[in-house]
Each structure stands twice: as C-alpha cells, then as structure tokens.
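Sequence of Membrane bound O-acyl transferase family-domain-containing protein (Thelephora terrestris).
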Amino acid sequence: MMGRYPLAEILLFEVLHILVFFPTRHNLYRVIIIALMIYLAAKIYLTMEATEPAGLAYTVGHTIALNLGFTAYLLWTEGSFLNHWRRVRDEVGAGADADGSNDLPSNFPLTKKLWWMLDITHSVRMVGWVQEPKDSLPPPPPPSRGTFLWKTSLKFIVNIVFLDLFTLIFAQNPVFDPHVHEPTDGPETYLAAIPLLHRAPYALAFGFWVALWFKIPHNLGALVCVGLGRSSPTLWPDVWGRWGDAYTLRKLWGRTWHQTMRPMLSGFGRLVANKFLKFPRGTNLSSYTQLYVAFLMSAVFHFAGEFMYERRVVYRSLKFFPLQAVAITLEDFIIFIAKRSLLKRGIKLNPGNSDESWAEAVVRVVGYCWVTLWFCLTLPGYIDGASLAGNYITDRWFIAQFLFDKWKLWV
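Predicted 3D structure, token representation.
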C-alpha cells in the first residue's frame, strides 16, 4: 500500500515558497504568503498517509520543514529585505557589477526579479550571497566554464558508479533491509545487532552512501545551471568538505558534512545567543549556545521527516543530534586539557596541515578512530528505526547486480 500523497498541496507549497521571496517592499504580501505556507504545511503533515516508500515521505516532511526554516531565517535573522538579500559580486567572473547586482532587488526589472526569486529559493547554502559562510564552505572552483563542465561531468559519472556499487551493501542486507526480517523483528535486530567494532564498515558505508545522494543532484544542478550560462562555476563549490578533516566531531559536522543547513542553523544560533540571551560574541557562552541551538534545530528538521512516515513518534532525531553537541562539548574539553598539558612540556601539535609531523599524523589517525567509534555507538539509535520502516530499501543497480551474479557463480 502506497498511502495517500497530497501531491497538489505539496506542489502548491513549493510554489508559495518561491513566491514568498519575490522582491517587493510590501510586507503584507509576505505575511499572506507565509500564512498560506503554514496552513498548507499543517494540512500536509496531518493528512498525509504514507506507508511506502518511507524515503519519499521522509523527503517531503524534511523538505517542508527546511523550507519553512529557511524562510524564517532570511526574514527574522538577516534584517531588512532590501539591505541583506543581495548577491555579492563575483570577483573572478566577467567584471565589476556586470548584471547590476548592486541595485536593490525591488528595483530590478520584472524578468530579473523572477530569476532572482528562483535563485534565492534554491540557495540554502547562500553561496555567492552576502550571508555566505566563508569559514566552512569548500573553496570555489576556478571560473573556467569548459574545465568546470568537464570535471563535473566526470564526478557525476563516478558518483553514479559508486552509488550503484553501494547498493551491494544495502540491498537484501539485514542491517538495513526489512524484507529479510521477520514481521515481528524490532529495530534492535538491525545495525544494533552487530557487535560494536564490526559496525564500522556499515557506519562508514552509510555515511558515504548519504554523501553520494547529495553529491549527484548537486553535480547535475551544476551542469545544468553552468551549462546554460545561468551561473558562474565559482558559485558551485563541492557540497562536501574534505573527508581528511573529519578527525574530530566538530570538524566533521562543521567542515566535512554537507553544508546545506549551515547558514540557517548558524543564524538561528546567533539569534538566540546574541540577541535573545545577550551573550557577548566570541565567548564560550555564546559559541556553545550556538552549537546546541544549531543541533536542536537540525533535530527538529530531521524529526519533521520522520514524523511524516511514522506516526508512532520515537524522537530518534531529537536524541541523536543534540547528543552530537554533547559529544563535541566533551571532545573540546579533552582537546583543551591535552593541548594545555602538552604545551607545558613544550609540545605544540597542529594536525591536518600538509607539513604535519609524525606525531600529528598519529593524533589525526586516533581522531579518525574516535569519530568512527562514536558513530558505531550512536548510529543504530538513529537509523535502525528508519530501516525497520523501510527508509533504506533499495534494489541492486546494474553494476552491483552484475557483480553479485558473477560472485554467486564464482562461489
């Protein structure tokens, strides 16, 4: 049974999410659009009846919450519409203000207003806007259009191949697939049933599998937008940071993991820490408040997806994401104590640099082991319930099925 998907309401919500960013000075216009968005979102959440596929239901619920959050972020945390919602000049591009981007958006011609509206709707990472988080995004690609299209095409093909191969791990695997379980099996019979240290390959496979599901549409969007001349290559940095930086939980979540929600989560964190609670910027009170607010908001957005396909609310995301903030706090404390102890002995370690010493390399390897162990411990509580609901059901793709058939013959 597929359940009921209110397709008309979902499409109308997406249209309203685009229209809310139309550059106009009339705030009443946005109030009406937002009221309609909230009404439609509530109706979809309360009336959608989805049993299969769970992944589609999760995507609908998560996307609606993310769009509402992004709208609130731009309206409530970035101040005046006219003063803040503007593109910055592409310094490596065609030249100074080639398209008049320094004008106020409400003064644009109608055609440019429409393109601008579509642009900001799909700019959750705020790449190329004044709110771009330059401290965490991967470096922008060079402006050469031909080189960018060629490299991105290769990445797209390679990512498709790897995603195909990863279906070998997910399809008909009792760690993820409910089809090979008894109907009475609970979530504790999935990844949680694997001995702790044996979970590492599955935890890593899950992370890379999710990464590929983000990279492929990102590659495709880049090829279309740059290929049609609607975007500069510099506006399409990788959706992921360097995996080599993921030797602490803070660096994994802050630099490596996809940055889709980073500006929005940071904006809400600053709003609570600096405007509501009045903590001075740069203090521990401010930075850790921002950390916990960011992970709590992330938990809410992910929970919105879980709620859509599972009315038996189990609060997986509301446990998993705040727990990451707690672990980062403890991790920071341990690193602080270790660095202070080493400095007293005249030792200063700075792992991750290209010229790192052997001791710094060892520290980084230990860090990778710690991060992997942490997810071996915590990931089952997050994904096993979703596996039971069928969120990760997949068939083997072409290459994976070919290799599987050949492997059966060899065995």
